[in-house]
Amino acid sequence: MGRAWKFGDNISTDLIAAGRYYHLRSNLPELAKHVLEDARPEFASQVKQGDFVVGGRNFGKGSSREHAPVIIKLAGTRAVLAKSFARIFYRNCINIGLPAIVVDTDKIDEGDDLDIDLEKGVVHDRTKGIELTFPPLPAVMARILEEGGLVDYVKNHGDLVIAGT
Amino acid sequence: MPGQTIVEKILSRASGRPVLAGDITIAKVDLAYVQDGTGPLTFRMMEKMNLVKAANPSRSVVFIDHSSPPPRRELATDHVYLREFAAKTGMVLSDVGQGVCHQVAFEKFVRPGDVVIGADSHSVMGGAMGAFATGMGSTDVAVALALGKTWLRVPETMKFDVGGKFPKGVYSKDLILRIIGDIKTDGATYKAMEWGGPAWSSMPMTERMVLSNMAIEAGGKCGPQPSDRETKRYLKEHGRETDWKEIEPDSDAAYESVAHYDVGELEPMVARPPQEDNVVPVTDPSVKGLKIHQVYLGSCTNARYEDIQVFCDYMKGEKVAKGTRLIVVPASKESYEKSLKNGLFEILLDAGATINPPGCGACPGVHQGIPGDGENVLSTTNRNYVGRMGNPAAFTYLASPATAAATAIYGIITDPREVK
Question: Is the pTM of this model over 0.90?
Answer without folding.
Answer: yes
